[in-house]
Structure formats: structure tokens, C-alpha cells
Design goal:
The chain is of the alpha/beta class. It contains eight helices and nine strands. Helix 1 crosses helix 2, helix 4 packs parallel to helix 7 and helix 7 crosses helix 8. It is globular, with a radius of gyration of 18 Å. The chain binds S-adenosylmethionine.
């Protein structure tokens, strides 16, 4: 049985930085329905509450593991009773969630693996197709940076994307993959559902951190409009932060 979830302080520093940027630039004044990927301690919810309790009007944490679900239920009970935080825990599959209200949603897919490869374009595509994720919402995702299926496979899989970005050298391609592979996945999901002409997606920022392994966290806003792949990648390119080195990348000319 899976045990309690525990992550490094750098993870929460990274999340804090990104959510603070989101809160200042994008967050809706009336609060959000916060839908998050499980764990037992609901630390991400504590961070959101710390920045501003009104950012989340209600929270739902979805955990697939039986044991972790029960541990999370106890944490949620404590948060409700001792700190008046509105939170529910559900045992199930994150991508089975379906939107029930028009309230702006903030999704946090707090993965331990890589947000690329596999079925993520299809899973996220379904979220977009049934309007669970859409205009006025935000999608935040973590992705593992420590391993990949081999650079040759990365280069051939994303050949078209690297071409559009004008990345010809191996080092430029590696850089784009490391800083933007979740953006590639998200754009694939939009294209799979034929929605790149109907939604304007921008990358609010990307923050790298190292806990037990190297990770990144990305945030995306969704509005009415049209998304061009290169604009989407470059929107995040200007807003990168590396917690490990304390380095921010400023937009050109700023
Ligand atoms: C990284 S942890 C979440 C930690 C939490 N955000 C925190 O900061 O305290 C991810 C959790 O999601 C669960 N999980 C992974 N994939 C899932 C899925 N597709 N649906 C529901 N739960 C999932 C895992 O069992 C794990 O407990």
C-alpha cells in the first residue's frame, strides 16, 4: 500500500512562486473551484490558502489510491474543522472529473511522472472537449525532468515542433524540451480536439525545482481566442524561474 506523500520544501517554494504570479496576473476576483491531484497532506491547498483564502471557493482533491484516500480524508477533516477550509476528497481518477458549475476552475495535476508521452494528449483533450477545462480556467501541472526516453527519440517525436520553433541545434532542442515539453503536450491536446482556433492558451510561467529529483511546474491560462504553437511556447519562455539556482529569465528588452 502506498504511504503518506511527502515532498521537498523547494517544491512548495516553486508552487508558491507560480501561484503568486497567477494570483496577480490571471486569477478571477470571485474565487475558483480548485481541483487537485490527491496526495495525503493537501499541502498545495495550504499554499493556496496561505496566498489568499479567497482564491479557492471550494477544493476537491482526487486520489486513486485506497490507503492514501483515507489518509487524505483525515487531513481534509482537520482542515475543515480546525481551519474552516472548504475541501472534499474523492477516491477516483482525476481525468474522470466533470465540470459541474460555471465557476472558474483551477486544476492542479501534480504528477510524479512526465507530462508527455503516453495518453496525456488524449486525456487532456477529453477534458477540453467536454468543456471541463475551458475559457476562464487555469491548468497547473508538474513534470519530471530527470529522465526521458532518449534524446534521439525526443528529437524525432518532436521534429515538427522543433521545426516550428526554429530549433536546429541539439542544445536548442534539449532546452525547448526541458522548459516546454508540457506545453507540447497541451498543444497536442488542443489540436487533437480541433480547439486551437477556439481557445487562447498562454503559459503563465514555468518554475524548476529539485526535491528528491529534478522537476518543473507549469501554469496555463485559458481564454477565448486562438492559440499558435510558437506563441504559446514563447509566452512561457519569458517567464521561467529556476529555484535551484535562484535565477529568473527576464523577457527580452525588460
Ligand atoms: C504528487 S502527489 C500529490 C501531492 C499533493 N499535491 C501535495 O502537495 O500534498 C500525487 C498523488 O496523486 C495520486 N494519483 C496519481 N495519478 C492519479 C490519477 N490519475 N487520478 C487520481 N489520483 C492519482 C497518487 O497516488 C499521489 O498520491
Amino acid at each position: 500500500m502506498a504511504g503518506r506523500t511527502a515532498y521537498s520544501p523547494t517544491k512548495y517554494a516553486a508552487l508558491n512562486l507560480l501561484l503568486a504570479r497567477w494570483a496577480r496576473k490571471v486569477a478571477a476576483p470571485g474565487g475558483h473551484r480548485y481541483v487537485t491531484l490527491g496526495g495525503t497532506e493537501l499541502k498545495d491547498l495550504s499554499i493556496l490558502t496561505f496566498i489568499d483564502r479567497e482564491l479557492a471557493s471550494g477544493a476537491l482533491s482526487i486520489e486513486c489510491d485506497d490507503g492514501r484516500f483515507w489518509m487524505a480524508s483525515e487531513t481534509a477533516k482537520r482542515l475543515r474543522e480546525d481551519h474552516q477550509v472548504s475541501v472534499e476528497v474523492l477516491q477516483g481518477e482525476f481525468f474522470e472529473y466533470r465540470r459541474e458549475s460555471d465557476e472558474p476552475h483551477l486544476f492542479f495535476l501534480d504528477l510524479e511522472g512526465i507530462f508527455a508521452w503516453g495518453r496525456y494528449p488524449q486525456l487532456l483533450g477529453r477534458f477540453l472537449a467536454n468543456a471541463t477545462l475551458g475559457e476562464g480556467d487555469t491548468f497547473v501541472v508538474t513534470s519530471y525532468l530527470g529522465r526521458h526516453p532518449g534524446w534521439q527519440r525526443v528529437f524525432s517525436t518532436y521534429e515538427a515542433q522543433f521545426g516550428m520553433l526554429g530549433a536546429s541545434s541539439e542544445s536548442a532542442k534539449r532546452d525547448y524540451y526541458k522548459w516546454a515539453h508540457p506545453t507540447f503536450t497541451l498543444f497536442q491536446a488542443l489540436e487533437t480536439e480541433g480547439l486551437s482556433g477556439e481557445l487562447l492558451v498562454c503559459c503563465i510561467g514555468c518554475v524548476w525545482y529539485r526535491g528528491t529529483s529534478p522537476m518543473g511546474v507549469w501554469a496555463y491560462s485559458f481564454d477565448e481566442g486562438r492559440t499558435r504553437f510558437t506563441d504559446l511556447v514563447h509566452s512561457g519562455w519569458s517567464n521561467r524561474f529556476d529555484v535551484n539556482r535562484g535565477l529568473v529569465s527576464y523577457p527580452a528588452g525588460a
